[in-house]
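Revision sheet: structure tokens.
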Amino acid sequence: MDCKMASPGVVTPDTFHDRTNRFQLLTWLNNLLKTNFKDVQQVGSGACQCQIMDCVIPGSVDMSKVKFDAQGEDDCKHNFSLLHDAFIKNGGPTQESDMEENGTEITNKFHYTEKWKNTFDWADSSTLGDNYTFCCICNRDLSTIHKGLFELRRHVNTKKHMKKARIAKSVGLQSLASEPLPCSNAAVRFIHKHCKHDSGDDEQVSSHFARCKLGSQYPKDITSVCQHTPYCVYIYEGVTLDKDEAVSVVLVGFFDVETSRHCIRFLDALQSSTDNGGDQTAATVVETLAKFGLPAGNLVTVYSDSKSAASQKMCSQLRELNPNIVALGELYNIADAACRAGVKRLSNQAQELMVDIHAHYSSCCTKNDNLKALFGSGITGDSPSFSLNTSCLNFCLLVAKILEIWTELQLHFSSCDKEDDKAKIICSQLQDPKVRATFMLLEEALKPLHNFQRHMQTHEGAARADLLLILEEASSLLCTYTSSFLHPQAAVRFIKDLDAQYLNNKKFHLSSSELSLGGKAVEDFLNESKAAEALPHLQEEVLSFYIALTGSIAEELPLTDGVLRSMAQLLNPQSRLKVTGKAVEELGIKLGICSSPEEVQQLTSEFLEYQLAEEGEEEKSAMVSLEEHWASVLKETKPTSIFRKLVFTLLCLPCPPLDAQFVFTQALDNDNAPLFSESEALTESECDSMSDNALSDNISNKHSPIQIEAKIDHDEENGPSLKERTIRGGYGWESSLRQTPQTRTVFQAGGSTWCKPIAPDKDSLESQDEVEEETPSKPTSRRQRKNVYQDGKGFLTGELVWGKVKGFSWWPGMVMPWKTKSSPPGMRRVEWFGDGMFSEIYTESLMSFNAFTKCFCKNSFASLPVYKEAIFQIIELAGERCGKSFASAEGIKEKELKLMLDWALEGFLPTGPEGFTPIDSAAHLDSSDSSLSNYQPPAKRKYVFKNKANATIITYSRDFCLSCGSSEIEVQHPLFEGGLCLKCKENFTETLYRYDEDGYQSYCTVCCAGLEVILCGNASCCRCFCKDCLDILVGPGTFDKLKDVDPWRCYMCKPSQCDGNLKLRPDWSVKLAEWGPFDLLIGGSPCNDLSMVNPLRKGLFEGTGRLFFEFYRILTLLKPKEDDDRPFFWLFENVVFMSANDKSDICRFLECNPILIDAIKVSPAHRARYFWGNLPGMNRPLATSLDDKVALQDCLEVGRLAKFDKVRTITTKSNSIRQGKMGPLPVSYNGKEDYLWCTEMEQIFGFPKHYTDVNNMGRMQRQKVLGRSWSVPVIRHLFAPLKDYFECE
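Predicted:
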């Protein structure tokens, strides 16, 4: 290649943009190459380009030959020739230069090369010669002689090529779907049963459905990952397929760097064998791994849900493939095994007592409430050893419950029939101090095991974060229990050597006085009960208990406590500095990562490099999840790194939840498995009907609007057309929506700083990403500009979607037009099917409806009637858009719903997802909702005197609306001189008394609107004023000037500073009252600083307690004059449990005493409150009505069982749902305790279902709203007499 370097010349950038681009280029080069270039001309020697090439492809350039001190043109040519050779050596295009006689380069030529096929598989040699490249998809020759790969990249992005590529891909996928799956027939039937809840008799349909779930690349994608990445194997045995058939399901788990998460993929399902189950299953698993080409060397661990003995037998066989396999499944059974081993060493009296009480409860005809609470948590059993066969978690719960109600149990059994011998035995056992002392011992001694297993059941963070906690606690179990009965030196030796003689040798045991009996409480109890003689015998039992329990833990731990601790510390970015090089060496050897001293040394050095590289990044690591942190680290490590393999090994370890159904759902709903049947596959009939003209330029995969219209009208025999039918959730159909005003921007006076927007729904948006505003690429018409989504993020009006709202599974909905002029970028307004509610939701929380198999929740479908109805409505609408008829159901809804589900789960064939695409989203933009709560006044207009030339005085007349400038005045503004039009008056009335959590008004005091407001600096004032009102009414630039005033007193606090057209009315308080007359005033100030439950309460005169005086001020303002005899009523509410001083102060101001009303008589929950007021009949007894739901069971959803008739007071704290500080939850669902659902809490308070389901609020936000509310039946009782004073329909 001949290169002629032009002499360097100074080029002056014409624009600031050029300077910016060059500066960015130099900055990037300096950061990459650790250089200090000051000018772009300095990088023209070719030396830095050679360095970049060597960074991209190490070793491609011989850096020793590069001339970094290029003094002339020859040195530059030399460097660029090295660069050119490196390109040619590594597959770059061959260039030829045609040169004129004077040496001037006139053109570059790029001849076709087979290496182009590595980038574009459709590129082939052309019959026209090397100057052309043939496109196999478009069936045409491309001229690539001048631009080469650039021409191919341009062609691949053309609409014509992409359209034909989709068609070709669909045909290819269809042929792929006809090929037999490599998995077994049992696997196909398992997938069909798990996802569709039937056996799948049609083999062809089941195979097609399984292909859809597994993805078009199965199993190649799994094999390719496991070839170079450590992986784990999940084995679930005895999974029921049919009545007489069970299978063993084999899954593969690995860490995916691109998605930053642990992925689980379905591999195969094997026929279970009853003979030699563990051996046979292990042999079959080995054959399966070999069949799919998964290397045994990368297999890290095996998790099996079978019993411990069978699991150990299976792992021992699999270790023949890889001796370093870790049986991590034993870690999750350690608490149960240790608990059973320890309890067996204690006397049988405690166990017999549990069994006898349970037998009495099961056989007794009269149910005692205490016994019902004791055995109502799903702990059941018929065998005498039922309490031992249960899990450690349930056993500890049972022990704690018995101790809690021990006295009540004594009273109950002592009052039983004297002829009941069993009750006498139980009563004598309860009176035995040694039995009670044994229970006290169990409660304390099992706490470490109980906490360990509880952390495996409850998941507070990400899965990997839970694994860290589990590993840390597992590593500390031996240390905890050995310190209870062994001398410190013996405990250290045992933990190091795991030799059982240290446990059984008496000389290593602590003395009787030092032996841990679960605290001093046990010994004190025996002394108080005058049973001190039982203490030595109890100490002997306790010693045997600790020996058996500790030995079981040591036997079950898959790795030593030091290795487990090192694993947890290494995975945790915050504690990586605690890990030593020696600990990393031990990890590498134990896990089989290192097989030679050289590899051990390499691992240590790479780990030290990681520690140094991450130094000072603690804060950054704390802001991201553990998976995201390691994904970023792994992306920067070399593929040959041993430390990289160690991290992959630790990240692929299985962690809870490991429930079979949960893991199956995760494995079969994997994002990495493309569901081609839902978006791309064509039916056989479509493929067969494709002629050669199907690849013509004019073809379209979507039906035109005319074709769809004809299809729908053609089906008039079955019902009216789409235009004539009223579809719930269809176009133009909206229900009323409880709206919140737009977000405002707050400026604190004197700060000159911007604060984040405040809105009533801000809690529900904390986890959402900030979205920058994008400029629309094309102007839209005035009609479209109101509602069209133009941010380029998809999900247009009328599109069917799935949405993720906190507290719910994926819910079906439809995108509706935005109600205001323009929508925030990345936000959509969605109407939910089933209940007709609306939400404003980010596009990141939406998925297209074609992902039906991924988002459909079978549990919600089975248990929630609203969800079931929502599924029916959206598939009905999708069917009508696709022209799909379900007439064979003969009008039977259940049968029709089954047909709908089958159609959706099989990919919406024959049209596919494109069939239910909105016909014309622009045709349905207009919204008929005219809710005034969402009304925002138009921008203010400036009025200028027109009778003066060049008039610059801006003024407002009292005949104009102060808010929007309209001349159609309805009323005078109550606070300032001027008027309000009808719409602004209604908006003013609606929002004037609306306050945010910071105590300030939500909107401007003048116009009750505004997106930028400045707050008054007076501590006793809560008003704010918007930018528009200040700049237009007071004077231009007023808003910016006031931001620098500290403190700033508003125009209500300091009327003398009113200027321009903003004049405060001298009689504003009278005018505000004239907006009435007000007939009723109700309110209740926050109880946080009044309730005795709060140890940090500030009382009535500080904190939120002083808001009571706001109520008193408004009450004084609104009370009728002495000569006004119209009825006026008021009511004030607050908590009962307040100090006597605060109560007397409130009574002194309100001039009356309160009445106490507890909602327990008219609802299922306690809610005792004080009510002050002058309502007639307030002292009459509280009576229930026919509509009141007074029992908890009446408020629960179908399939849920109330454990109590009445519950405690529900507050804003999540713990208030429990019946006692550590008491049980009030609901039993699927045999387990459960919290109250939001709809159930709403009904307990007397609200309709989904009343608080607004603004994407999660469960805790909705509970906080309800926890601050009043009980509807109580308010109905108090307000009932007012019907005699006011006209009611």
